[in-house]
Amino acid sequence: MNDHLVADRAAAAEPAAPAAETIRRPASDSQAGIWFVDQYATDATVYNSPISLTVRSRLDAALLRRALRHVVARHESLRTTFALAGDTVMQHIHAEPRTWWQAVRARDDADLARLERELAGTRFDLGEGPLLRALCVDTGRDETRLLVNVHHAVFDGLSWDIFLTEWLTAYQDLAAGRPPGAGSPARQFRDFQDWHGERLSGPAYDKSLAYWKDKLAGAPPLLALPLDAPRPPVQSFQGADEPVPLTAETARDLRARARQEGVTPLMLLLAAYAVFLHRHTGQQDLLVGVPASLRDRAEAQSLIGHLVNTVVLRHRVSGDLTVRELLAQVKDEVVTSMRHRAPAFEKVVEAVNPGRSTGHAPIFQTMVTLIPKGGARYRRLGLDVDAWRHLGGAAKYDLVLILEEHEDRLDACFEYDTALFRPQTVRAFARRFGTLLRGMLADPDPDPDAAVADLPLLTETEERDLLAAWRTERDDKAVRETVAALFERQVRRTPDRVAVEFADRTLTYRELNEQANRLARALRARGAGVGTRVALFLDRGLETIVGLLAVLKTGACYVPVDPAYPRDRIEFMLADSRAGLVVTRGAPACRVPPGAAVFDLDAELPAARSLPGDDLSTGKSPGDEIYLIYTSGSTGRPKGVVINDVTIANLVHRQRDLSGPHADARTLQYMSLSFDVSAQEIFGTLCAGGTLVPADAELRTDLHRLVAFVDERRIARLYLPYIALHQIATIVARDRTPLRHLVEVYTTGEQLVVTPQLREMFAACTDAALLNIYGPSESHLCTAHRLPDDPWSWPEAPPIGRTVPNVRLLVLDERGRPVPPGVSGELYVGGPILSPGYNGLPEQTRARFAADPFDRAPGARLYRTGDLVRQSADGVFTYLGRADDQVKIRGYRIEPAEIEAALNDLGFVDASAVVAVECGPGDRRLVAYLVAARRVPEAELRRRLGAVLPDYMVPWRFVHLDALPTTPSGKIDRRALPDPPEPGGGSAPSSAPGTAASSPTQRRIRDIWAGLLGHGDIGLDDDFFALGGHSVLAVGLSQALREEFGIDVPLRTLLSTPTVAGMADCVQRARTDGGAGRTDDDLASVLRGDARLPARITTAGVERAAPADGVRHVLLTGATGFLGGYLLRSLLAAGCVVHCLVRAEDERQARERIMANARRYLLADHLDLSRVHVVPGDLTRERFGMDARRYAALAGRIDAVHHTAAHINFAAPYASVKPANVDGFVRIVEFCAERVLKPLHYTSTLAVFSPRRAAGVITEDSVPDEPRGLGIGYAQSKWVAERLALAARERGVPVTVYRIGRVGGDSVTGACRADDFFWLQLKSFVRLGLAPDDPGRPVDLLPADVVADMVTGLSRTPRAENRTLHVFHPRGLDWSTVFEVIRGQGYALRTVPADAWLDALAADGGDDGRSLAALVPLFREGAMELGDHVYANTATGDVLRSVGMDFPEADAAWVASMIRHFRAAGELPAAPGSPASAAR
């Protein structure tokens, strides 16, 4: 299955002489690329290559170590490190072999898994080495487990068998008493570089580079797999893997089918994967990376090193392509691509210059890799060895298909980025890939001419489950009564309530019903009745509502005709509808078609008033027509959509479901009667007892007046198209207009885009809920989504929600088959609410309405909406756009809503619309239309959008308009937007390429660029990478800027603004205000905004649970953390039953996490598990991710809550820790007020007080009122949470806040968090042998077990409830005592000035990612400062003593026990003179 092509096998040359001293030579291009990623990536483990090998016998660890040293001595790659010299990455080949080796024992399989994870997560230092680590694990069974991790810069996949064979061979030699390695001298990576270097220049190399530039021109830059989460701005590289179920029979069929088709098995697998990607993305142009071995020569077959490159396969897949055609295409693609594999992928990226993003890999985001494995060579050594197994860890790409070829089977797994996919999603991917592959190999006689689109994708179970989930939720109430009957029933309930209020006139329900009955009798006398149609040609007003109800009471169908429409359109609608009556006020301003009569209300109403006002029998059934509404038609003429009574009756019931207790709300009638949402406004209100308040035409267009009208008329419910909602939000947010009575706002008709103005309106000006609803004219309401209470958490493009009863929604592909959850497809609507079709248009009706192939019920139909959606695994739909008008630019699928949200985020933009225009064959470009307070140069617009959008989403042109054109229904009329002017007209022009730098900063940056790039033709807006810059030069540029301007421009900032102008702005901001980010005032505004407790949280009518001293059932968060583990022990010791909320998929996993944490801190033997109840859930999700029943049951059972969970990371920004530390706190408060009132015990920190606060004594009663100056995200999040705690107290939730000082290790064992700040300080002192001469105030340390016992004791006395308490040592240990403890443990230590200590700390860099080195910039910036505050806890001491506790005497033994604990765990080196625990 190895598709490696051997070009030539030259005669063997002499191997390089062994290195006698360190040799320095340039790294290969591939190695340089890996080095750059290692310097830049957020996860330095991305190029780790960890494996596990099982030998089924006990091996001698000492001999294994000697054998390993022998192999490292033989191969220079295993003795190589890397460093940057100028702008060149250099290999440093060391003479002395160094190994990292440990022999350990695993207590059980869980312990073994921990060892595997820890080794796989090794953070190699490419500058220090060694770049190989080995662990010999005694599992307690008759076997030896070898865990090895090596960095990819010095290794490739084919090196594993060479390395393992040599290692085990050397071991067998040593075990037999023979010296190892009597064979020939090893070939070295230097030899390969010399051979391969000949290929990296000359015509053949140039031809290969040209091949890649041509092949990848115009390629799609991003793979559109269905993600579970938005792509983060910076790639996380956090990975996991999921096995693909393949049987031995599948492997046999694969080989047989490949032989039959004349391809290799790998080619067939690549073809199957291309189909898999096509079916999940809808993309026809797909880029897939594959490794390509460079071991062409015989000498290279035994060489260890990085002898591999990456090539890109470009598959073009369409549904009508046959399998045989695809296989031929893939074969040609593989063979041709492999011929051109010599240029390093990094050089291909530079040549193609696809544009860089920190959020994903360039060119391709998925890969297929084949690892050939053979066990025969190990058996020849006399060892029973399992094939080595790759250990998952970091993920370089979104999704990687890893194939492992064994002699008798094929193993496969998906490696995936956990920031993008949930495990269950990839598990489904794996099942579907297996299904698709088996479909390609179908036996007997697979059809090679079968179309790709016909191959199976869903498993039978998955398709069955999908169809079951799509079954209609029946509600027979809607099919039993007509809308007229529903209204009349409401009249009987509330006859004297005001039904309609217009201007200064009102009608009660009784009055409205009587007037409608009289008019209905008059209309019936003129021929109106079941089976007829009546046109309502009326302006807004009371008479319109009366007339509408009157038509319903006759049994006729109403046809709304807007008098504002053009005359030709009105006349077409009257004629096409065949309306028998046209209801008007006065003579109609148009011709009435023959056969139609005019019913003039002005003339007819006086006589009608004398008719009886009681209800009349209509003879109408739910299946009869209720209205005919005209929409735009694809033929250019209006198209009439017929809707039956049952559809609107269902709408009435669904509105009651959505509004609940607010169903009878005062509702503004904003929509035109010609817009179908008007039926929801009118009937959803009048059939529920509400008051309908129509807005006149002038008010609808004067939004300032409308905002005032909404408040003055006490409007509680609004229905608005998006553009009107956004414009109203702009006014309300700008003027801070309170909308005191508003309860619900519904938006529909087009994609909802959440703007800052919307967030501000709903956060600061109203407590109303925002609901995004969806339904085409052919079915009315289909889905609804109520946005969360916190507007700052809303996504920019919210989903449209879940299916409502009596509606059936299916998502199908172009062949009409169900698509998997998360995959884009066309939405089909079914159910009893469906329109009969289009009036007088049978062909269009047949084109859009068809029999439901998945429903056997007689007459079941589906309507094809033309809307693209995706449905999540939990049934939530998201609207993606139109199937027939998809916007694609340069291969990217683009949602204009996202660009519009970014534009609307600019303070001066009031509204915007983005469309794609054709500028030539295949050349589509984005144009943005703006309504803005001022005209802004295009260069500034592009720059500001470039800060939040990728370059392909920045519009080509910007056109300023006075107003956006809208349709009569209020939607943006995109067809009415003017053509964009030619470049040079319209908006202020941007600087063209080559525009000269103007400021001194710009000129100096341009000169630095010129020096690095080797030419001076550089414009202000030229892209650094477009001019030939690359990743290593970017590092040099960052260094040059630091030296030139005395500031540190982060590399990520450079990559996000790679122009002279952009860099100059960054430098200027860094020089003037210390950074390029938002100001301290901006952040303070965000924090204060987040400190508002949602209005939904109330304790009204909620009774108190047990008193403090009677608490038995406790909910504990953070039980898998350090202090939480000890708190669990203390609560159990106090006799509590502890319910532990743990983020886990099930109870088993949750319990495993709790026990793993307990073992980590040596607590496992002290927990009474019979009183530990695990609760799998997620603190940040609604109801903790539980269903309503389980959540309510838990809320009713718990007596008190201890909330100690927190995301503690001093380097993480506020946005990263907010979900756990702020949003999670709100969820906890909400839980405390659910069913019974539960006291909350919240673990906070002393760090909530800003250093800008005036120096003084901070007591338990001090309130953290100033967020500015809090330098780290963790402290900022805890400040917000404390403010929320104060708000919760005001709402009646008892909240006891425990501000904790430094938490030390266990007072007996010393067990502590490895990333605890105080411990990291101690660790740095020991590693460096240095400490700052003035570390600050005494250490207010308390051991974790003491803190937990105190919190538990305080929580059980009424004296502490609803107070803030300070839990830290009041006197503490002075630093000189701490230093003496370190020296007493055998470590040399001297004090130096703080700057010298920071310099040494930065240079040391740490050894394993758990180091203070990463915080050096924060130390230097003062972000870690706590100010000159003095903290007091006298009141806390008084409460402690009242329950028989007190602060213990500070004990230096606490520090000593921590050092001993971490030394035993390998976190510290052995003290000089003591035996080393690991070899050097």
From TrEMBL:
Region Disordered, residue ranges: 1-25, 969-1001
Entry keywords, A to Z: Ligase, Phosphopantetheine, Phosphoprotein
Domain Carrier, first and last residues per copy: 996-1071
A GO molecular-function descriptor: phosphopantetheine binding
Gene Ontology terms describing biological process: amino acid activation for nonribosomal peptide biosynthetic process; enterobactin biosynthetic process; lipid biosynthetic process
Listed GO CC annotations: cytosol; enterobactin synthetase complex
InterPro entries assigned to the protein according to its UniProt record, in alphabetical order: AA_adenyl_dom, ACP-like_sf, AMP-bd_C, AMP-bd_C_sf, AMP-binding_CS, AMP-dep_synth/lig_dom, ANL_N_sf, CAT-like_dom_sf
KW Phosphoprotein (keyword) present: yes
Cofactor section: pantetheine 4'-phosphate
PROSITE patterns: AMP_BINDING (PS00455), CARRIER (PS50075), PHOSPHOPANTETHEINE (PS00012)
Residue ranges with Low complexity bias: 10-21, 988-1001
UniProt name for this protein: Amino acid adenylation domain-containing protein/thioester reductase domain-containing protein
Protein species of origin: Thermomonospora echinospora
